[in-house]
Every structure is written in structure tokens, then in C-alpha cells.
Amino acid sequence: MHYNEISTEVIGCAIRVHRKLGPGLLESTYQKCLIYELIKIGLDVKSEVAQPIIYDNIKLKHGYRLDLLIDDKVVIELKATESLTNVHFSQLYTYLKLGGYKLGLLINFNVELLKDGIKRVVN
User: What are the residue ranges spanned by the domains of the chain?
Assistant: First the structure.
């Protein structure tokens, strides 16, 4: 599946989860429900994917964790916060850069309309 097709499917599943649950819950709740929806439509989903960091010739095994990795291509960073900040965008962009990924979605479930909480980040 192509990057754009994956992101379209992820957004559709996230909207379904948000319509059923609404805002105000913990990030982990949305994550579990989104994983369920993504698997249900046949996507390969990995959660809490530990990624190494190489720093000054030292490999740190668990430098950071990706919330979700879809089909080994698209990184999903989930939030349940009042608003997205520049730090959230920087976090996802850094994950993309360090992991060599091309596309990421930043999804904040703590909004009235989920379309207002979805941001696409390209490396």
C-alpha cells in the first residue's frame, strides 16, 4: 500500500474511534481502540516500537518509542492534549528523521472535531 493510502485509512479509523469515544480520555485508550480498528481493516500495526539512537558511536537500544508504526512505513504519534504545540511536531519530525521514515501523522484526540487534531508531517 502506498503512503497516501495508508494515511487515508489511518485517518478514517481514527475518525471512527473519535466518533465513538469523543474527547477527554487517556491517550492509551485511543491507542488501543485505534490499533483494533487498523488491524480490523488489514493493516500491519506495531505499537510502542523501540527505536535505537546512535550517538557518538554508541548505540542506545531504546532511545525513543514510536506510538504506532503502520506497514513499516507510516509513523503515528498520538496525543490527548488540550492543543498541539511546536514540540509535538518536532518530536514526530525527529522520529521520522532518526528512523528514516517518510511520513507521519500527529493525531490529537482531545478535540471536538478530529479533523482539527490531525496533522501530516513529511520528512
Answer: 3-122
CB-based contact 54:63 (threshold 8 Å):
no
Give the pLDDT score at 62.
Answer: 76
Phi, psi of 37 (to 5 degrees): -65, -40
Given strand 103-108, what is the order of strands in its sheet? 45-55, 58-70, 74-79, 103-108, 118-122
pTM score of the predicted model: 0.93
Contact criterion met (CB below 8 Å) for 117 and 109: yes
Mean pLDDT for the chain? 95
CATH of domain 3-122: 3.40.1350
d(CA 27, CA 78): 7
